[in-house]
Amino acid sequence: MTHSNQKPLRVLAAVSHGAFPFLSKALGKDFDLVFCPSVAMANASLNDAIDVIVVGINFDDGQMFGLLRRCKSSSRAKQIAFVCIKCLEDEMEGKAHEAFDIATRSLGGDGFIDLFRWTKQFGADQAYEELRNLVDALVQFRRAQDRHNPVYSRI
């Protein structure tokens, strides 16, 4: 995967200690991960260099939606792509997945991904590639929005 600027995309990875190795392997070398296992670390790491926020459902004892609300109400973070993710455990039921996706989008996030389900459906390599493509596309979309928004531009 190549990005338009050839620099690795900077990902604020707000996930549990158990999920971080899995997410790191899934995203691979095209992404520069900033590991933040707590809300305090995530808040301290948010800056203009962050391209996307990926937060796990087990982040800091269930603070996934709390971090999403804080980011989308912050002038410095609300334009950053934000994805909620499930990396570990058993596959969740379809209705639970749908509820997480609806909640994520209603709070301003870009969507919910059950990476565990994807790896079972498509195999790890294809699931990881899909995740990388999705994250890259979200970042490119947000950057295009920024360029066309006279009120907010990170360029």
Kindly describe this structure.
The chain has 155 residues and is of the alpha/beta class. The chain has helices at residues 20-27, 39-45, 64-72, 94-106, 115-122, 124-147; strands at residues 9-14, 31-35, 52-56, 81-86, 112-114. It has a 5-stranded parallel sheet, with helices on both faces. β4 (81-86), α4 (94-106) and β5 (112-114) form a beta-alpha-beta unit. α5 crosses α6. The longest helix is centred in the C-terminal third of the chain and has 24 residues, at 124-147. The chain is globular. The model is unreliable at 150-155 (pLDDT under 50).
Keywords:
155 residues; 45% helix; disordered C terminus
Strand content: 15-25%
What's the overall geometry? globular
Number of helices: 6
Uncertain spans: 150-155
Mean pLDDT: 87
Q: What's the main sheet like?
A: 5 strands, parallel
Question: Secondary-structure element sequence?
Answer: EHEHEHEHEHH
Structural class: alpha/beta
Radius of gyration: 15 Å
Order of strands, main sheet, comes to 2-1-3-4-5
Distance between the termini: 22 Å
